[in-house]
Design brief:
heterodimer, A: mainly alpha, two-stranded antiparallel ribbon, globular, B: 363 residues, alpha+beta, binds adenosine-5'-diphosphate, binds magnesium ion
């Protein structure tokens, strides 16, 4: 019995209490090198001056943020006005990512429910099937999707052969194509956490509700959804956040008019035409928004747990 | 015979199969209005299955179920006016105790205010008034049990189904709840269909008991009847302690069966329909209906030797080996008014039986 002052836990945990901190070391090193350091570099770059051929000049400047939010005219000497271009791109990104998340939820929830209610032995197989598209690179999947959806693609040809439509539907280069692309890219991130939550759900609760005269939809709304809400929230975050910063789907499926924030940032670091501090600043603004979203949702679920 | 309107639940030739496994084999029973009815049997005999068929959670493979004369086996659970107390309570974790109890009323179309008011009243009835704003997780097992009971009672069902509701409670609380449940049943006049594997619990609480085994009904009757006149070996063995003996029936005369057991001992008891002369059957002798004496009292006193005496609080159990015959257990009360003598191991004794203590059983 060492007087370590540790609370609770079994004897074994106390015996190795000193070693426990070291278990996280690899994770901390990885996190530090691969996440925190690049973030710090981005943060610093966003406050530097741009070099015209890409890169930065080591001189403090707020120009990047100024350019994002304000319009000072062609020569930079006009009275500052709100710059709507980038805010607009941001807004459109949120909208697109939001719709993609909603679409994922509408399709992912029934899928997850279906898998979780299969006999135990079959579930692993279904989960495996959900992850199969992930064996193929995202770029290839997105390009294939473009082929699938284009005017002379199998979708349009099929529908025309069936006589459902007479003219090909224009899907590529529309918002819808972007949403479909994003939805397809991240669907498993919606399915898996909801599946995990529904699998843990005690179906006796549904029976109890039915026993107390609740019809099916009421059980879904009043009992099942509140019980699996943490899984739904996790799924939404896991789809929304990467969709927001995505550039492959908008670039390949949306065309120039359906530009999203990810593409804006990507452009700044491509070739030698970019503006590194501006790209870094846009990344920082995106990151701040995501953090606020995460904090709000964490608060929300904490409040409900009480 | 009770008329049709006195029957709350009528199960007619109900069969339940899971694939090629038959969980219930042609069960028929009528549960009367206002009675405390118990389904009793060992684990796995199909009690839960039958209860779930009445509630609507399991399809009926064959047969029919009537509720106050209406055929219900095709109705979905939310359209059946019965409520259930689940074995593990199944309380809604995200709702307060008050909203849990009010849920059924709300679903019946009452306003939220009205539902809460009535829920509050029912919670008072089970002495949980001061806990109404807690979440289920903040209550003890016994309190959760009462919430489950209150939730099922709040919509004033005609029939309440209870699936081993007390099995998770410790002995003392369990005894207290048995009394309370019985009281509640009398007071509300609701028909209770109670499932348990505990024969003592069943005997304590029930008006009538259906004893089940391996998906079949073994005997249905009042608690006393089941205990005193078990129909077959399974029922005699499952309900209470008993001495089960192999006997041969020698003669049947004027409603009495003359039998003998190993060692040539003679015993006479009431004849039972279906058991004739020459049959080799079992006989049940309840230990507390036997008594010991130093000298033979009757013609059929059985001679033996005490092997062991065991003190068990209120009673003393004496184990006696009959000369060349089977072993008997005899129970006598330790009350000061009782004049039962305690015999030392090795003593020679005679085993005597009260009127009707011996009972012939079909297999
Ligand atoms: N969904 C099911 N599928 C297959 N067998 C089942 C199912 N539910 C119950 N059983 C079987 O039916 C029998 C009766 O079960 P149950 O009614 O739960 O027994 P009890 O409540 O008396 O302990 C058991 O042998 C059990 O294994
Ligand atoms: Mg059971």
């Amino acid at each position: 019995m060492a007087g370590g002052g540790a609370t609770g836990g079994s004897v074994q945990t106390d015996t190795y209490a000193g070693a426990r901190g070291w278990l996280l070391l690899p994770a901390w090193v990885t996190l530090g090198i691969l996440t925190l350091a690049p973030l710090a570099i981005m943060l610093v770059y966003s406050f530097l001056t741009k070099e015209f051929r890409g890169g930065v000049i080591w001189e403090f400047s707020l120009d990047a943020y100024d350019q994002f939010f304000f319009d000072r005219g062609l020569f930079g000497d006009a009275p500052p006005q709100i710059e709507w271009t980038y805010i607009g791109i941001f807004w459109r990104s949120i909208w697109q990512a939001g719709l993609a998340t909603l679409l994922s939820l509408l399709i992912g929830f029934p899928t997850a429910y279906f898998i979780a209610t299969r006999p135990e032995k079959q579930r692993a197989l279904w989960v495996f099937l959900v992850t199969i598209p992930y064996w193929v690179n995202l770029l290839i999947r997105t390009v294939s999707m473009k082929f699938l959806l284009r005017d002379q693609g199998p979708l349009n040809e099929g529908l025309m052969a069936l006589g459902v439509i007479s003219e090909p539907l224009t899907i590529v280069n529309t918002n819808l194509a972007v949403q479909l692309g994003l939805f397809y890219s991240y669907l498993p991130f919606m399915v898996l956490p909801i599946y995990a939550a529904v699998e843990r759900y005690n179906f006796a609760l549904s029976e109890a509700a039915a026993d107390l005269y609740a019809p099916r939809w009421t059980i879904l709304r009043r009992i099942l959804i509140p019980a699996v809400k943490p899984g739904i929230l996790a799924g939404c975050i896991l789809v929304f956040v990467p969709s927001l910063g995505s550039f492959l789907a908008p670039d390949l499926l949306g065309g120039a008019r359906n530009f999203m924030i990810g593409s804006l940032i990507e452009e700044q670091f491509k070739g030698n035409a970019g503006n590194w501090p501006f790209g870094a600043a846009a990344s920082m603004i995106l990151l701040t928004m995501v953090l606020i979203l995460l904090i709000v949702s964490a608060r929300q679920s904490q409040k409900e747990a009480r | 015979m009770p008329s049709d309107t006195d029957i709350a639940v009528d199960v007619r030739n109900a069969v339940k199969r899971y694939g090629d496994f038959t969980a219930l084999k042609q069960i028929s029973l009528s549960i009367r209005d206002n009675e405390f009815f118990t389904l009793l049997g060992p684990s796995g005999c199909g009690k839960t299955t039958l209860l779930r068929m009445i509630a609507g959670f399991e399809d009926v493979t064959e047969g029919a179920i009537f509720l106050f004369g209406d055929e219900i086996e095709k109705l979905p659970p939310h359209k059946r006016p019965v409520n259930t107390v689940f074995q593990n309570y199944a309380l809604f974790p995200h709702m307060t105790v008050l909203d849990n109890v009010g849920f059924g009323l709300e679903m019946m179309g009452r306003s939220k205010t009205e539902a809460r008011k009535r829920a509050g009243e029912v919670l008072e009835m089970v002495q949980l008034g001061q806990f109404s704003h807690r979440k289920p997780a903040q209550l003890s097992g016994g309190q959760q049990q009462r919430v489950a009971l209150a939730r099922a009672l709040a919509p004033r069902p005609k029939v309440l189904l209870l699936d081993e509701p007390l099995s998770a409670l410790d002995l003392k609380l369990r005894k207290a709840m048995q009394v309370e449940l019985k009281h509640l049943q009398r007071e509300t006049g609701i028909t209770f269909i109670f499932v348990t594997h505990d024969q003592e619990e069943a005997l304590t609480m029930s008006d009538r008991i259906a004893v089940m085994s391996a998906g079949a009904l073994q005997q249905l009757g009042e608690a006393r009847e089941i205990y005193e006149r078990p129909r077959n070996v399974f029922v005699a063995d499952f309900i209470g302690d008993t001495n089960l003996l192999d006997v041969a029936v020698d003669r049947i005369e004027q409603g009495r069966a003359q039998c003998h057991l190993g060692g040539g001992h003679q015993l006479t008891c009431d004849a039972v329909e279906g058991i004739g002369a020459g049959a080799n059957v079992h006989m049940s002798l309840r230990p507390e209906r036997l008594y010991l004496s130093a000298e033979p009292i009757e013609v059929e006193s059985l001679k033996g030797r005490v092997r062991e005496t065991i003190f068990i609080g209120t009673d003393t159990a004496t184990i006696v080996d009959l000369a060349d015959g089977p072993q008997f257990t005899i129970r006598s009360s330790n009350s000061t008014r009782g004049n039962a003598r305690v015999f030392e191991p090795g003593a020679e004794v005679f085993v005597n039986m009260e009127q009707g203590a011996a009972r012939l059983l079909v297999d």
